[in-house]
Amino acid sequence: GVLHEDLRLLLDTALPPKRKKVVLGVGDAKMGAAVLEELGVQCQTGGVVAELMRGIRLHFPALVRGLTAQSAAKAQLGLGHSYSRAKVKFNVHRVDNMIIQSISLLDQLDKDINTFSMRVRSWYGYHFPELIKIVPENSMYCRVAKFIGNRRELSEESLEGLEEIVMDSAKAQAILEASRSSMGMDISPLDLINIESFSRRVISLSEYRKGLQEYLRSKMSQVAPSLSALIGEVVGARLISHAGSLTNLAKYPASTVQILGAEKALFRALKTRGNTPKYGLIFHSTFIGRAAAKNKGRISRYLANKCTIASRIDCFSEVPTSVFGDKLREQVEERLAFYETGEPPRKNLEVMKEAVVEANEVVAEVKRKQEKKEKKRKKREKRRLEALAAAAEEAAENSVMETEENDVGAKKKKKKKKQQQPEESEAEAEPEENGVEEEEEEEEPQPKKKRKVVVEPEQEEEEEKKKKKKKKKKAVARDSEED
Q1: Is 278 within 8 Å of 256 (Cβ atoms)?
Q2: Whether residue 5 has pLDDT greater than 70
Q3: What are phi and psi of 346, to 5 degrees?
Q4: What is the CATH number of domain 224-364?
Q5: What is the pLDDT of residues 464-477, one digit of tens each?
Q6: Which residue in 124, 147, 183, 220 is deepest, having the highest Cβ count within 10 Å?
Q7: Where, residue-wise, is CATH 1.10.246.90 in the chain?
Q8: What confidence tens digit (pLDDT) does each residue in 63-120 have?
Q9: Count of other CB atoms within 10 angstroms of residue 108
Q10: Where is there biased composition of kind Acidic residues (predicted)?
Q11: pLDDT over threshold 80, residue 156
């Protein structure tokens, strides 16, 4: 409903300043309504306007200077791609592709686990045939076969373990008694190892199936909460998978949803002019099984109607909730009671008003929680950025300190070199005391200009001691000359 900023700018620059009686021709009715709402300009969208727009679109390269038919085709293609991407882009948490894949995998796992369990029964049945009648369930049979192994080794001590597996003390006692009087053949240890390893694989598959069912339940509560609350997670997922997506299911009429999954029976009935099917995949819901034989068609039609409403609410609502699904389920329960007892159900208008009020409260609560989460996330992000900034400042300070230390060390080295150089020059300037004649012949060297050096107090004391020694030497030399 908000006019795009580019379109608003274009209209503001193209329209005259006094636009009291301006009438625009717009090809799209929604765009015309948006222009009227935002700018107050009357728009016409039908009849001649559509033909004019079609003509402009056809001869657009000829009307615009510098635009070729090839560049116009490229622009149209890019617009089509961007429009398709915008339509395809959904919320990550509301993707129904994962539901389609998980329900397909769940059905495949059911078939495979059933086949493998039958293989374990026929394989282990040679050794312990009486166990099949005592433990008819597939996964429990595999667990018991893995636990027992060789039936001759079964004793009273293993009774507690059997009770934990079968969850029944009477069954565990029956298994123990049957193992003592079994008609099965003996089996080698190698065959038992193979049977136990295969049973372990079947048990792991059944455990994975349970985890997959929990995942499917959580995804259905996120993507289609109303549909799953009305008809169940598994049946709702099968409907979405058969339709192709939740959007396709929402587009179907109630009559199509009613027989979804019974296409073969429908076309066979149309071909032979027989009775058409009353239900398809929705037959697996509990409502149709609870209804009487004469009311199964009526309740399936009513249930398909409610499923269509629930799927549309889930597909097109911004914040999906299970409130509508719970209310629709109550309506189906009331309709079942009406078929059985004749008690009139509530009107749909009253139920939907209650559902809208409750749904608004739930949506407000969800939005409040989302705002809190967003605030917390922003705070965490701010703290993280502050921590990074503090770490960067510390690193910069450490680098500055290191550079200063390096500079101070370099200065000290330079000072030491400068102090060593004048000492060496003084040592070279001192005359050697080999005789009086040599000292007379040698001329005193001229004093060299020395650079001023900053000297520490300890170094000053050393220099003063050296000067005193030199004076003493000179005095000794003068005394020897006078003698």
Answers
A1: no
A2: no
A3: -70, 160
A4: 1.10.246.90
A5: 777 777 777 777 77
A6: 124
A7: 224-364
A8: 888 888 888 888 888 988 887 777 655 555 567 888 999 999 999 999 999 999 999 9
A9: 10
A10: 423-444
A11: yes
Amino acid at 313: I
Diameter over CA atoms, the chain = 158
Q: Above 60 in pLDDT, residue 453? A: no
Q: What is the dihedral of CA 289, 295, 300, 302, to 10 degrees?
A: -130
Distance of CA 69 to the CA centre of its chain: 43
Residue type, 368: R
Q: Could you give the percent of the chain with pLDDT greater than 70?
A: 81
- Residue 468 and residue 433: Cα distance in Å, rounded? 17
Query: What is the C-alpha separation between 258 and 464, in angstroms, rounded?
Result: 115
pLDDT of 153 reads 86
Q: In terms of C-beta distances under 8 Å and separation of at least 24 residues, what long-range contacts does 136-144 make, across chains too?
A: 138/113, 138/114, 138/202, 138/206, 139/113, 139/202, 139/203, 139/206, 140/165, 140/166, 141/117, 142/117, 142/199, 142/202, 142/203, 142/206, 143/199, 143/203, 144/175
Q: What class does CATH assign to 97-214? A: mainly alpha
The tens digit of pLDDT for each residue in 131-147 reads 899 998 888 999 999 99
Is the pLDDT assigned to residue 422 strictly greater than 80? no
pLDDT(222) > 60: yes
422-435: average pLDDT: 50
Cα 130 to its chain centre, rounded Å, is 50
pLDDT digits (tens, 9 = 90+) for 237-263: 999 999 988 989 999 999 999 999 998
Phi (first) and psi of residue 44, to 5 degrees: -105, 140
Task: Give the side-chain half-sphere CA count within 13 A for 191.
Answer: 11
Return residue ranges of the chain for CATH 1.10.287.4070.
Answer: 97-214
